[in-house]
Design brief:
This protein has 329 residues and is mainly α. The protein contains 14 helices and three strands. Strands 1-2-3 form a three-stranded antiparallel beta sheet.
């Protein structure tokens, strides 16, 4: 085998598995990136992946691969940048092991992230949240499960992976009720629960039964709900809620938008940014900026708090004949 194969194996086993101990989600994302890259490199060079060398994955090929993702596979700029981040991480690791490829590595690492237009993220208003929570058919077992899951997402701001990873033993309903979750970057945190959520979860745990280590929100087969399954049930109930709440028809809502709705609800109620960041599990306050966008109601309230101007407007009146002519055109 050439230099690429052993260093790529070491990257996944040593760097990601041992040194950084990244989450399975990160490993899966990086694995998919290199499956796509090696398949693309095979088509471009005619070499089998195990025969490729580091020099084959030069800046020209990697840049071409990124364009292929965007133009041929229809990926967004965010996905393109995620794939590039994985490639950069690998080449940084390779730079310590293969200095003879320093120039190739330097050129690949110099490929910049692509800037994208930042569009405001959709979020649910209070009325829309009520419509979504009313959508599941609570006369059925799955409907009751979905109702509690949606309520927890809207009232806690948990990420999708955090929701699906919850176990029965992660729910504490006594004094200072909260749920324990394993968040991004393998960080554990406790998220408080309000009285209504405590009531929902107590009733659900009573019906759900199961062992402490079992999934809090199981599938019909009893296993843990997959991320795709949660996305599908959110899409299903959003479609139902649109019938009673027309404003939802113009919005594309995913599970992450429920987290966004939680953040916007906190900000609208006057919660400071530091507290919002703490509840969302962000280490940096700057991360909350993604949740603050063109909410006209928040802007209007901010403007209303200003002192009124103590001056009156005047209409401009030209005092020159030529200027009067021009003004009248």
């Amino acid at each position: 085998m050439t230099a690429l194969a052993p260093v790529l194996q070491a990257f996944f086993v040593t760097r990601l598995g041992t040194e950084r101990d990244v989450s399975p989600h990160t490993v899966d994302s990086y694995r998919h990136t290199f499956r796509l890259l090696l398949t693309y490199a095979k088509r471009q060079t005619g070499k089998a992946p195990s025969k490729l060398d580091l020099s084959d994955l030069d800046a020209v090929l990697v840049s071409s691969f990124l364009d292929h993702l965007e133009h041929d596979r229809g990926c967004g700029v965010g996905t393109r940048n995620t794939r590039l981040a994985a490639v950069h991480s690998f080449f940084t690791f390779a730079s310590y092991r293969h200095p003879e490829h320093a120039e190739t590595i330097r050129q690949v690492l110099s490929i910049p992230q692509k800037k994208a237009e930042r569009r405001p993220r959709a979020f649910l208003t209070a009325v829309e949240m009520e419509a979504l929570l009313a959508a599941p058919d609570r006369s059925t077992w799955s409907g009751r499960r979905d109702h509690v899951l949606l309520a927890l997402a809207l009232r806690s701001g948990l990420r999708l992976s955090e929701l699906t990873g919850l176990r029965c033993q992660d729910v504490e309903l006594g004094t200072a009720a909260h749920v324990k979750c394993l968040g991004k970057g393998r960080k554990r945190r406790d998220t408080p629960l309000d009285k209504a959520m405590v009531s929902f979860l107590r009733a659900w745990l009573r019906e759900r039964g199961g062992r402490p280590d079992d999934a809090l929100f199981p599938s019909r087969q009893g296993g843990r709900l997959s991320s795709d399954a949660v996305e599908r049930l959110v899409a299903k109930h959003i479609a139902t809620a649109r019938a009673s709440c027309p404003s939802l028809k113009s919005k594309r809502i995913s599970t992450h938008n429920l987290r966004h709705s939680f953040a916007m609800d906190l900000l609208a109620s006057g919660t400071d940014v530091a507290t919002v960041a703490l509840l969302l599990g962000h280490e940096k306050l700057e991360s909350v900026n993604a949740y603050v966008h063109e909410d006209l109601m928040m802007k209007e309230r901010a403007l209303e708090r200003r002192a009124p101007l103590k001056t009156r407007g005047r209409r401009y009146r030209p005092n020159d004949a030529l200027l009067t002519f021009l003004e009248g055109l």
